[in-house]
Amino acid sequence: MKILFFGPNGSGKGTQGAIVKEKYGIPHIETGVIFRDNISRGTDLGKEAKGYIDRGELVPDSITIPMILNRLKEDDCKDGWLLDGFPRNLAQAEALDKALQEEGITLDIVIEMVLDRQIAKNRIMGRRLCVNDNNHPNNIYIDAIKPNGDKCRICGGDLKTRSDDQDEEAIDQRHNIYYDTETGTMAGVNYFKALSAKNNGVPRIIELDGRPGVKEVSAELLAKLDAQE
Ligand code: AMP
């Protein structure tokens, strides 16, 4: 199964992506993770990418596109993959489509987490971390997991924020790229939707409403994946 997973920062894409990976037993290829891994290992690629990432800009296509196309040729990708964080713009979408056509590989599914920009931003900025346990979700903007006053809703522990969650400029910068329908990520999403329409529904497009809680979104995702098998 070959799957693309789109969703803005703050939509819960990471959590839902892990569920898809589990269901199909395919490698979860996250561009951001590959870059961060290269940075921490001090590779040439990491050194080149770091400045762009620190500024919240996209790493140039000349670096990113071959990196991902080569990754998809590795052994563990033979039976499928879940691509997350790529394509991130129209040029990457076109390059991926072209490479897949050249290799005779069919893209099966494109998943899009749909979430309004302001809600996505609130989700990020409202996130609060429990000092006792990272897995105690608290968010001042989500009713289902609202903290108990200024304490963790599960254990009553103190809450803190993650500094990059409060960097409004960086959040806006990432969202500017995602929601751009001219050349940004949404242009890439629309590219695959048009391809699907032209190609009798291949790849299948799954749109997911990102507004409900994590469990509800997972249930909808799994139901839609099962309905298509
Ligand atoms: P993420 O973890 O997906 O938020 O990615 C972190 C950073 O890595 C992004 O802000 C970009 O600087 C860079 N990055 C991730 N994916 C791509 C991509 N497909 N093209 C260019 N840069 C990317």
Your description of this structure?
- The protein is of the alpha/beta class and 229 residues long.
- The protein has a single domain (2-115, 181-228), classed as P-loop containing nucleotide triphosphate hydrolases (Rossmann fold, 3-Layer(aba) Sandwich).
- The protein is 47% helix and 14% strand.
- The chain contains 9 helices and 8 strands.
- The chain has helices at 13-24, 31-41, 44-54, 61-71, 90-103, 117-126, 168-178, 185-198, 214-227; strands at residues 2-6, 28-30, 81-84, 109-114, 127-130, 138-139, 159-160, 204-209.
- A 5-stranded parallel sheet has the order 2-3-1-4-8, sandwiched between helices.
- The longest helix has 14 residues, at 90-103.
- The radius of gyration is 18 Å and the shape is globular.
- The mean pLDDT is 93.
- Adenosine monophosphate (AMP) binds at residues 31-32, 35, 52-53, 56-59, 64, 85-86, 88, 92, 174.
- Residues 31-32, 35, 52-53, 56-59, 64, 85-86, 88, 92, 174 line the site of adenosine monophosphate.
